[in-house]
Automatic annotation (TrEMBL):
Protein name: Kinesin-like protein
Subcellular location: Cytoplasm, Cytoskeleton
Coiled coil regions, renumbered to chain: 371-459, 603-662
Composition bias, Acidic residues: 919-932
PANTHER family (alphabetical): KINESIN FAMILY MEMBER 11, KINESIN-LIKE PROTEIN KIF11
Similarity section: Belongs to the TRAFAC class myosin-kinesin ATPase superfamily. Kinesin family.
InterPro entries: KIF11-like, Kinesin_motor_CS, Kinesin_motor_dom, Kinesin_motor_dom_sf, P-loop_NTPase
SUPFAM superfamilies referenced in this protein's UniProt entry, alphabetically: P-loop containing nucleoside triphosphate hydrolases
Source organism: Caenorhabditis remanei
GO molecular function, one term: plus-end-directed microtubule motor activity
Amino acid sequence: MAELSRMDLTMSTRKKVSETTSNLRVAVRVRPMNGTERSEKCSTIVKVDKGKSSIDLKSKPFGPFFRVYDTDTTQADIYADLVSSQIKKVIAGFNCTVFAYGQTGTGKTFTMEGGRTDAKSSQDDPSTGIIPRAVEDIFEQLETSGCEEYSLRVSYVELYNEELFDLLASSESDDRERLRIFDDPHKKGVIVSGVEEVPVRNRSDVFKLLQLGAEKRRTAATLMNMHSSRSHSLFMVNVVVRENTNTGEELVKQGKLNLVDLAGSENIGRSGAQGNRAKEAGSINQSLLTLGRVIRSLTTNAQHVPYRESKLTRLLQDSLGGSTITSLIATLSPSSSNFEESQSTLEYAMRAANIKNKPVCNTKVSKKTILKEFADEIEKLRRDLRAAREKNGVFISQESHEEYQRNAEKVNELEEQLLCEVDRLRKLMEDMTYMDEQYQQLYERKGALEKRLEERIRECAVKSKELADTNDVLNKHIEAIGLMHTASLKSFKQLVQAQEAADEMKTDLGAFWRKVDEMAVADDLHKEMIETLTRKMNSFIQSTSEQVEALTSDGKDATAKIVENVDPHVSTIEAISQSINKSVGEMRSTTSSAFRKGTEIENEAVEKINEIAQENLEKWNAVLKSSSEYYKAHSARSEEFSKQLTDKLDEIKKQISDFAEDFRPLLAEIRNTTSVNLEKRTEQDTAITNDVKTTCLNVTEGVRALLLQLEQLSVRIEDNHEEQLIIDQNNQESVLSTINTAENVVQSVEDMIEEQCDTKEIDEKAQSDLQGIDLDYETTIQEAKEKSLEGAEEMKKVTRGLLDKTEANRKEATCAVDSILTRISVDSETCQTTGEEVKKSCDESSENISSMLQKFGESSKKATEVALEAISKIEIKFVDPSGNPFSFFLYAILSISVNVPPRIVPTYPDSTELKSPPEPEELLGSEEDDDKLVEGEELAKKKRRVTSFVRRDSLLDTTNIFLSPSTIQKRREATIDEEEDFEN
Ligand SMILES: Nc1ncnc2c1ncn2[C@@H]1O[C@H](COP(=O)(O)OP(=O)(O)OP(=O)(O)O)[C@@H](O)[C@H]1O
């Protein structure tokens, strides 16, 4: 009996994950014009409208479709768009189908399998089709998802002339064994008996199988296609993934990917099919026609869907209106020569787009549940078988021969189903063993990792201690920074005090300059006194001239008297002038000494300020220097520390990578050993399988022989019913004994299963323990990692915070020092400028005073000169006492001779000839000139005051020319009092 297997891995534990329906995803692909079409000068009648996702065929729109692809679309684009997402679903436990439909020669095989090259991967050849890309992708996605326990099996079948053949069967002969299809009694779907489900462990395994299958697939050259596929092909990938949940439960996910390349629909006349080819084409068209009817029924909600009318529709039953996620790629020729076929394909595709499927995820079930399910299933089948056998016994004796045959068929079918289940179980056990091996490797790896973990934990403890030490050091640094901060604050306070002292000095300087002003006022008073004297001189001169006039009238005596009086006055004037000059000199020296003193004080103040500033600057520089040194040292230490941390981390990383490096060859070795073991095991399994096969064959042979006997029996029954009955019974007994043997085989298999179950329980426990340890280990590693990261992060944060704080403090202190220094320098500059200005104004006022004094001196001199001139203009004449005007000589002679004393008669010049003394304004210069010469309101004010005073004084003294010193003194005092009153 041929080995039986089951195609559909879905089990009774299937569970719907969603009630949502999804439409079939229909895409249309247009291939480029081929050589024949071009040579026949056919026009393009197909236009792809990507915007609307529709196809215009001779301007008639079809669509919208899920996607439309023009002639430029690459294989990679189509794969990424349509299939890539399905792979994820398959790994998650869904069944997915992708099939290509279209007229012959439109690119179905090209789309599904790719260009005819020997490329080993999609990277080598961009024309690689969906099937190889999908296989590559499944491996890639399983590896990248970190899934470590999985098993892949592939089957490849072709449906040729309504017969199903295994493209991966080992038989080399052309006369390949047909596969049987029968309905799965429990679910929607079919069971294909005896199909090879080849376990694949890597990509290259799959490529080899693909090549093997493709070679076996029936193709032929037709007028439409040089390599026309004459059969429908179905490539299936079963993915079983085992997972361990957090609760320690073992879960198994089973997903399946069906990749279907249908044979092309063809116009037999146009394709030139004859004989066998015509028969093939007829069969192909027939199955496609049924597929069309199924699609129509599904989209019109018909009561009956004719799945059973062709094997193709039976195989695709779950993909059309079932629980599979299905995509259809309709392929088109762009040529006008294929208008009718293209139209039919598009109509077909439009209809298919309305089919609704209800995708269902094959629930993750525990291994234990699967084994139990199998055991139940086998038990059920056994019961059915027994019942059927019993029925047979009854029917042989009582009912007709046809009834008996029907039952015999039923027994056969049940036996097949039973064997199928056993085979399925065997495959599952193989998968489980494979995954157990994967698990064993993981377990060993875990042991090694545990050791590593212990080491790491020890290292972590050392690191934690180091971290704590570093923390202490850092705390000390923080304390030191705090002390520095306090010192900085203290220095800042000192600086503020220095600033206050500087302010006080400024106030003192202000007082000093006020004193200087007061001295200047005193100077003014001196000057005013001098002016008063000058005025008095003027008035004296005036009064002198008036007296001279009066004396003229008084006569010669008076003249003589005047002459006598004038002399001492002249000397007095000279003395006064000298005293004025002297007092001017004195004043000059006093003023200059006062200025010198002021300058000295100012210099002293500046020096002192500079000294304080210098002192503070030095202090601050020292503070800054020590701070920056400290910060430098601190940052160097921090850097060193962080470097140490980084080094340690690097070291740990390196150790981990070293460990990984060490571990890799070990892993490779384990893998090698495992694969060797696996091969051995496979060999053993093959031997066992062969044994089982032989046994099964024997059993089948036995059953066949029995059937033969039964047939003979039934012939004989007609002749001698009674007699044969005894023989029948004997035969039946022998059948029963054979069946019992079969049952024993089944029983032994069951025992094996139970045994497996027992060991599995231990396995499970160990696994759950390991799972726990795994989890603990991962959590501990994670925690240790997180802790060390947190610690490092916190350290970094603290260090960063401290550095920021210190930086901020440093900046603040520097800013404060800068601002204070700026203030001090500004203040000292202001002091200097103010001092310089004051000095300048003092210099100017002293210059002005001296020039004024000079002017007054000059004016006094002038006044004296005027007075002297006035005096000199007085002519003294000797006059004859008798009144005769003789000449002096004559008079002298006469007087001598007559003894008459002569008389002196003074002649005063005309009053107009006498020059009046200059006005005070004239002497001091005009106010406009003052404005030009003297900048500053103060000096102008002083001058105005002097002028008014001089004018007033001169008015007061116009009548008195010569005053006694006591009068002068009195006048002076009175004037000062008046002046004060005036000022008030
Ligand atoms: N998109 C495409 N780009 C380039 N060449 C293509 C494309 N589609 C198909 N071809 C070429 O057209 C020819 C026919 O393609 P293919 O054999 O895949 O058609 P088919 O639909 O599978 O035909 P059949 O139903 O007869 O098997 C091949 O030579 C193939 O390389």
